[in-house]
Amino acid sequence: MQRKKFLKSEGDNYFLRNEEKLFKRDYSKDEIVLLLKNKINKNKKYNILEIGCAAGDRLIFLKKKFPNCTFFGIDPSKKAINKNKNKNINLKVGSAEKLPYGDKKFDIIIFGFCLYLCDNEDLFKIGSEAFRTTKNKSFIIIKDYIQSKIKYNKYLNSKNIFSRKMDYLNMFIWHPNIKIISHKIIIEHENKKFSKKDSEVSIVCLMKG
Question: Which of the residues 72, 77, 84, 111 has the least number of beta carbons within 10 Å of its own beta carbon?
Answer without folding.
Answer: 84
